[in-house]
Amino acid sequence: MVSFRDSSVVIIESGRTLIRAGVGLQDLLKAPSIEIQARVGLRRNPGDSANGSFSLKPGESSDNLRPSASSSRASTLPSQPSPSAKVHDYLVGSQLDEALEAGHDIIVSWPFADGDVRDWTQAEALWKYVLFHTLQLKRTQNECPVMLSMPAGLFRDSSERICQIFFERFNVAGFGLLDRPMAQLYAAGQLSGVVVDIGHEITDITPIYDGFIMQNARSSTPVGIRDCQVYLANLLRFNQSVMAAASPPDKLSDPEVTQRFLDDLVKHVWLEGLVRVPSDGQTVDIPEDEGVTDIAAVLVAGKEKAVIETGMKKKLTAKASAAEQARAREIEALDLVTVEFRGHSITLGKERHRFCEPLFDPMLLNGLPVERVDPYEGRILPLQEAVAFSVRQTDVAQRQYIWQGLFINGDLTNHVKGIGAALQSRLAPFILSTPDQATDVQPRSIRVLTVPEYFAEYREKGDGFAAFLGTSIVAKIAFNESHGKNFVSKTDYNEKGPHAILEMSLASL
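Above: the chain's sequence. Below: its structure in token form.
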């Protein structure tokens, strides 16, 4: 059995809208060194239609295209394939960013936005850019194995096609394919749970039991970060400080310019970590410590500076007069924050903490300009109802173990605190709470998972990097396993072809 040096292992996390990658595994697993948007760009030719759509020309094949996903998983992010385009025709990463910033006429596509692969040429262009441009690997001397995580529910032929691309186009030394929700749960050190992955406009919900995804229970709900941004941008229209900056009274206001200002401000606010999510709509109170400092815990968490600053603040507060203390408490109760944005000092209040409300009540978006896949059938379920529905599709005996691993993921969790506790409190009515009705298999509580603090590189990054961490953990085990069969080697591929990927079993880990 082939084994590989940790320093040669490549990790790639392909999400709906982001790709993260890195090369090399150390004893303390490293955070991703590369992060790019999972989009490609194609320069518009004079013959292309204005809306960016293409038609097949005589002799052209549509083999690289896949039909659209179901409405619950489908994305409104553009997918504009060009059957005649080659891999090298597409702009990716910094190339695309620079072209768009320069105002070039570019057709942008998101090949992974539906949770599968919309266009194989575009997908290959993204992976090729990551491997050979950003990671600086050499195709002719590629001794690196690759562990790739993808959204759950890939078609079997998609898995085979991915395997074929990595061996035949990228010449990798070995290849493993991992479901993204499994990677996320592994990062939390669990084998059973329900992974809630909040994306740009779709949230994926995946119940997992004993290391196996419950495929019949997976679901998606079409709410995400995009909806939260639209909602808060509308709320900020009632903030005088915001509107004074967005449309100054001494200038003619353009509604589109004002809306772009609000959208960009909202994105800046949540990315700066200025939002927290109250549990069940209540204000979150940050508990004071009881005067006892656990020095060991402080040092392990790397929070020495924060503890010292808190102590100094308390000393200064103790010396302040009663009137000053009362005023300080009044200001703290208002929860005001001043944001420096585009040359303006903007004061925001508690309305910013309402950012995530559409996740738990999509009806709040009624009347707001939110684009949906057309047609979308049925009522959009609040996140708590969607999660409860998915868990109910599993066997009754499995549910108590699944509820002990509620793991909230996605880029939102890197910057916004309290989502796990907020969802936990809203899920409480969906499990039995009356002790005299309890049975041996009835779940009694819900436990929220987080990435353990002993992963030092991930301590301050949040749970949004869990998929990359979990993929790294699996790669470290799989590519060093001398007896298992958890990846496809070049020998396997030469003997069995792309079908070999279907015979590997990462669940045995």
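The radius of gyration is 25 Å.
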